[in-house]
Amino acid sequence: MTKFKRILSGVLATALLLSGCSSENSGKDGASATKTSTEGWEKGAYVGKNVTPEELSFMNSMSAFKKLTDGKIVAYDYSMTQKIESADNAETWQKSDGPGKQFVPESDDIKAISDAETLNMPTIDENGVVYSVFGESSNTYTKKENWKLQLKKITTDGTISDLVIKQIDELNQAGESIELNKMISLAPDKLYIQFVHGAVYEQFEENGYSQVDGGTSVNAVFNPETGEKLYDLPEDLTYGNADIVTDKENLYYLSALNETAELVVANLQSGAESKRLATTLSGSNSYNSKIAISDTGKIYIANNDGIYEIDKESSELKLKAKGSKLPLGNPDYYASTFMALSDEEFLSYGYGDSAQELWRYYYDPEASYNPNAVLTIWTLTDSDYSSTNNLQYLTSAFLQQHPEADINIETGIVDTGMSDSSANIDEAIKQLNTRLLTGEAPDILLLDGTPISKYAKEGLLLNLDGKVDTSDMYGTFGEQMKTEKGLFYVPTTFSFYTLVTDDQEIIKADTYEKWMTLLQNSAAFSMEDFYANPDAYLDPSKTQATSETEEKMWQESYNLLPEKQPVLALYDFQSAYDTLWSVNELAIIEDSKINEENLKTFMAEVKLLAEKNKIFESAESIKEEGYDPFEYFDRSFKLGSGYLESISESQYASKISKAKIAGVTQLYQLDEIGNGIMTWENNEQPKAHPDEQFLSVPSVKANGTWNPGNILGVSSQSKHQDLATEFVQFSLSTSMQAKLARNSLPIVKSAIPALIEKTKADYEKMLEQYPQNAEEYKVTFGATIDMDGITAKLTTPLITDNVIRKQAWEPVLDYSRGKISEEEAISKIHDLTKIYLGEKAQ
Amino acid sequence: MKILKKNVPREKVKYKDAKAAFFFLLPSMTGICLFFVFPFFDTVRRSFFDVVGQNFAGFAQYQSVISNDSFQLASVNTAKFIGICIPILLLLSLILALLMRQIHPKGRRIKTLYLLPMSIPVASMVLLWQLLFHDKGIINTMLVQSGAESVSFMNSGAAFWVLVGTYVWKNVGYDMVLWLAGLDGISESMYEAANVDGAGAWQCFRYITIPSLIPTLGMVAIISLLNSFKVFREAYLVAGSYPHDSIYLLQHLFNNWFVNMDISRLCAAAVLLCLVLLVIIMLIQKFLQAED
Predict the structure, then answer these.
(1) What is the ipTM of this complex?
(2) What pTM value is reported for the model?
(3) Which residue of A413, A436, A458, A800 to mutate against B (max B Cβ within 10 Å)?
(4) Partner residue facing A15 (CB), from B37, B51, B248
(5) Which overall architecture, per CATH, does domain B70-291 show?
(6) Fold of the domain spanning A374-487+708-774
(7) B241 touches chain A (CB under 8 A)
(8) Which among A89, A618, A811, B63 has most CB atoms closer than 10 A?
(9) Gyration radius from chain B CA atoms
(10) Three-state DSSP class for residue A261
């Protein structure tokens, strides 16, 4: 037994020794894929080539592609004004006028062009014969007299004749409404047509219709020669993206009606369904998937995730080409056409970076890649669309520059609708922490929602100081991100609460005390009072809105007498609370303790705002009706309450309103600037109000709080530190930041000018081809917001887990309602927050 | 005395038996070492180092933990919870076991029903809680309808009693089964002998049943003590990471520190908890030995 005890002691001692040798931070740089040595690399990968023909008109959308029996590829635009052909597998193209060009009037009159009856919705059979609609494809809404659905057949020599489909002809004779949705040529003697007849809609306003009768849906295959219906197909094909491919024997399509997609196989001759196989594609993924068939009869599917071969017998998906390594992985890329030129070559046409693009994907045996250079990027959740979209875009773009590498994105919580529950978030973070502690950490972390400061403090993140250049960031953001020990995390976007106004009195209220005085002296506004006695409020010298039409809402609004205008119109207490808390949090919580004085001041501000807007009074009864009670007042207050999503929207506001305008907002979108040519709302042009200024929301302690977003960090345990660091730097590049600006505010200065220059170039290119648009679609370009000036005032980054904000909510609400006293509210806040703050205290 | 082999010394036989036993025990011992013993030693080690295990911190983490307000609150709550729950549970389960023994043996099948609460999944338990104890739940509705004021069960001190009730309800069946096993182990002849000597029911219980149940008491107490930590799951799913003060337990603190990567303090607190439990268990064992 003594010997046994000695053995046991030895085992335990060994255990102690071994546990002392647990995962250590090597602190070494991992092997880099960017070193010039290609030792260990492998060859053979799918690559993509942009084969968009220069002949393709800018913004001209090619609608129908087909590979003919003679091997040529032919395509037409939607109106068949243009035809492009390729005899060398999409390498080069020849352009010619299409048979539809004769129907498009040569005119500068946009209305004349858009009203003309033209060919549209073409589909091509394997011999090059085209079937098309002529004129409008539907009279469901317009109910034009004597309208008939006209179908045409265009032979390869350009001869146009009527295509008679008996069932449609009968409906035309009967004068029924018809809406044709889809035509797909399956074979020279088989044409799939999907339409709805007999639907009845009633018009309730100028552009508003409500359905009275949904009509009868027809999904059938017809013989274009005889016009006879051959057989019906199920409703699976009614959703917009659905497509059918055929070999000589069967037809194949993806059904996305259920949560998981199914591959459906039916007999081409009879339409009888022979198989319906479940796939591993989710419903939403299959909705965006395109199907293609090669000459050997293999079926392929393409979506953002990649190109897959689908087994016809088992429906098993085999990945052929990963989407993230091709432009397919660009979340902006929507493929309207996908063809299998062979079993190793594919053609995809779709909307890419602001233009239609044609890409050929093929297997290149010489393309080399490093199988060890696989970066893992971890993100907490995929429920935030803009964040997920940004990450996917960055990944796709980075891999285009680094085809030798690969990136896997891991998500802590997959969005199931409950992803914001704290239990799920905690579990995801705990799993990440376990990996960080055990040396299995991802290479790159999207740190939003995680204990970033702790990771940095404990050496779990790589010091990026000197490795990532942040000099192009706005203001002093780069310096503000640094800690004593270095730079451990880098935001790629940001947001901030702001006030926008041209009211000089408000502009001068640049301290908290002045702001409070302004609020106290401002008028209180009651919706009920207004509706009870509008004349007492409305300014008779200015045009007033009516709420009859949306158009008028944008052009006019209720204009109040200056003395009746409240400073800030907010009916939503949550908005007021969140805005004011965000800029005051660092003053309220100091050194893991509640600063009571600052808390009192914050509570007073919230309460005053609620009182001035009578949030708990008049707005309640109106809110019950389910719409924003201040909807038509947004632009008639000194400080309106819009939730402005882009800088240019405030330009609309300032142009449209006759009164002084401003808004409390969290600005994060610049899509209107980026897509300047699309901002033709009611032909109003965006124009900055000359005196408009952006102000920080006054805070108790210091103005200028801002929120870093989409924060990237590199794990100190990463084996690919160089590549990971390069990814972080890449996300701060001008081109990438300009792309991120679609969903967020870019953090580097050069992004907005680059975005404007690109949009301007696209616009000028469009005008070259469509000079008639020049008069109609005038756009003013240029950054009208002084971002440098605004961001220079943003000096306090706020990274918070929002726990205290949520805990303090109810006492502050009760205090603002007058249910409890100030002392009671503060006492409750202390009680609610003491555990959290106690845990943080060192 | 059985001689296994001629002229083989007794010590050598014992050593052979021990060696065989050791090898039979090796697989389970390996598992225990891998999943409990080694991680425990790693926890102890981490409590003296920083998160990445490079910088020695000495007893700084222990000082930080002991002086931390949240740790103190959680410790008091946990001690209070155990101090109230365990005696109630032991007493109630013993009474149920004694009553169960009075039922005709065939009726003992209903004891299985008492185990059902333990088999209810945590998620279902949480739903039940919300159904019963929500501000607009069944209990509050009944209270309001009867003219009484509603009670905020989960946001007031009442949360503690909800937790106690849940714990006792879930575990009473299991403990009752353990008591029954202990009671079955008492020889009937002792009661018969006591009856012959004129002992009444209470005297039998006081001088035969209770002393005989001492070993069972020790086991039930230790198991109940360990089970008391599992009530955190329901509390966490209902009330989140930062519940009302009264139900803020040590596991909440550990969970939150782990989420916030405060690993060193977490390990220090875990070691302290382990030491306290060790002392308690040793005291229980000492008490049991003294009673023996």
Answers:
(1) 0.84
(2) 0.81
(3) A458
(4) B37
(5) Orthogonal Bundle (1.10)
(6) D-Maltodextrin-Binding Protein; domain 2 (3.40.190)
(7) yes
(8) A811
(9) 25
(10) strand
